TrEMBL record:
<dbReference type="GO" id="GO:0032006">
    <property type="term" value="P:regulation of TOR signaling"/>
</dbReference>
<comment type="pathway">
    <text>Lipid metabolism.</text>
</comment>
<dbReference type="GO" id="GO:0046527">
    <property type="term" value="F:glucosyltransferase activity"/>
</dbReference>
<dbReference type="GO" id="GO:0008203">
    <property type="term" value="P:cholesterol metabolic process"/>
</dbReference>
<protein>
    <recommendedName>
        <fullName>Glucosylceramidase</fullName>
        <ecNumber>3.2.1.45</ecNumber>
    </recommendedName>
</protein>
<keyword id="KW-0378">Hydrolase</keyword>
<feature type="signal peptide">
    <location>
        <begin position="1"/>
        <end position="19"/>
    </location>
</feature>
<dbReference type="GO" id="GO:0007040">
    <property type="term" value="P:lysosome organization"/>
</dbReference>
<dbReference type="GO" id="GO:0042176">
    <property type="term" value="P:regulation of protein catabolic process"/>
</dbReference>
<dbReference type="InterPro" id="IPR001139">
    <property type="entry name" value="Glyco_hydro_30"/>
</dbReference>
<keyword id="KW-0443">Lipid metabolism</keyword>
<dbReference type="GO" id="GO:0010605">
    <property type="term" value="P:negative regulation of macromolecule metabolic process"/>
</dbReference>
<dbReference type="GO" id="GO:0016241">
    <property type="term" value="P:regulation of macroautophagy"/>
</dbReference>
<dbReference type="GO" id="GO:0030163">
    <property type="term" value="P:protein catabolic process"/>
</dbReference>
<keyword id="KW-0326">Glycosidase</keyword>
<dbReference type="GO" id="GO:0005765">
    <property type="term" value="C:lysosomal membrane"/>
</dbReference>
<feature type="domain" description="Glycosyl hydrolase family 30 TIM-barrel">
    <location>
        <begin position="99"/>
        <end position="448"/>
    </location>
</feature>
Amino acid sequence: MSSSMVLVLLSISALLVLSAGSSKCISRNFGHDSVVCECNSTYCDSVGSVRPPPVGRFSSYLSSMDGSRMEAGEGRVQKNGSGTGLRLTLVSYQKYQKIRGFGGSMTDAAAINILSLSAASQEQLLRQYFSPEGIGYSVVRVPMASCDFSTRLYTYADSPGDYSLDNFTLAAEDVQMKIPLLQRAQALSPGRLSLLASAWSAPAWMKTNGALTGKGSLKGQPGGKEHKAWARYYVRFLEEYSKHNLSFWAVTTGNEPSAGQMTNYSFQALGFTAEEQRDWVSLDLGPALHASSFPRTHVLILDDNRLLLPHWAKVVLSDIHAGRYIHGVAVHWYLDGVVPADISLGVTHSLYPEYYLFATEACAGWRPLDRGVKLGSWDRAEQYAHDIIQDLNHHVVGWTDWNLALDQTGGPNWVKNFVDSPVIVDSKRDVFYKQPTFYSMAHFSKFLLEGSQRVGVSASTETDLEFTAFIRTDGSVVLIILNRSLSEIQFEVWDPAVGFLPSTAPPHSLLTLAWNTH
């Protein structure tokens, strides 16, 4: 065995020892409103395994602008309430949706950045997301071929006129980077990862504009040879990944179909109207999946901003031929401030309760006036938590972040569409930084395991606190509370099954409380 291999094994064994229990953040300040936690090949902070304490006590986990990062605490349940101030009452008989999971996306850029680290640091980073002592990611979105977070433009079937897809082949980015990393993530995860595939563009020869970018849709009509070939492309993708023992829980009908209807759109896109998507699913994609080895793979429509709801859902899901192949509606977060959740997510759920809502993409640093990486931005952590709570309180069953890791510029991205990520890699120093948004995700992904069911929670008076409550499959309760205000807010939680939980939400903080009821 070479000396370098011995060093790698020693580093990995060291991090396994360090990761067994909780450990503290090594904080670094880059001049924004909070800090990042720096991790290297032998050390990274970790909250460790989390289990609610015995009945009569409760656990708390606090992250804040002041620098707390999943700081663990414990309190005693009281028999009597204080009778003053704010009370949050658990209404456990009000039952809503069950959680599918939380996660991020294995883009080409994410894979490039993870693999730019040493073997031990790569392992450390993957453990932070996927291992039991990490934050419990169970969903990974995988782009089908290139997107803007690639270094080049490509699809898997770039031979013009190859309608039977005889020349379909995965790219080096899949075989050498994404697939090995997904296999490693799966090996670390205590459960089976829910993989989700989204395509950005069909091959240029199938499209009206003859290009992967810009305004363009599939040639011909649903049921025609291009539409059939594009559906076959999905099946071929699933077949190729299955050869590497990677199976997909779901596919979407395509990333942001509205983008492909925009003139001069700068990166990969495929335009669909709601009507075209409806007919392609009913005539092509649905039957192709049903006749393949993957009839149980879920189909999620839209995969675009919730601004398009409920109109898009009405057009597609009201059609019985399309609706029978569809399982859910995928939403992105980018224009969430434009349209209230009630009239988009809420109305869609009330009209089509049998189809679940799932958030498939979000990132900070995408706005033109607030672009790229901000190391240590707490404001961005609050943006994440606010959106996740709002989504969960409007029937969404999971929330997927965008790139799992980016470099310090927010790339690579071939069109320079640089954004932020919960993990930022500095390959020169062989370190990575866990952003406040990483911990924002952790407050949900670590605790809301698959099958956790949202229940009612009511406030005794108007409050600045935002909150959501769940009962997990083991019967324990999780309450997540966001305080975006400048003030400390004292409150108590009343769970009629156990009693009163006195607590405090510091200014600009995110708090998870967990307790057992039996």
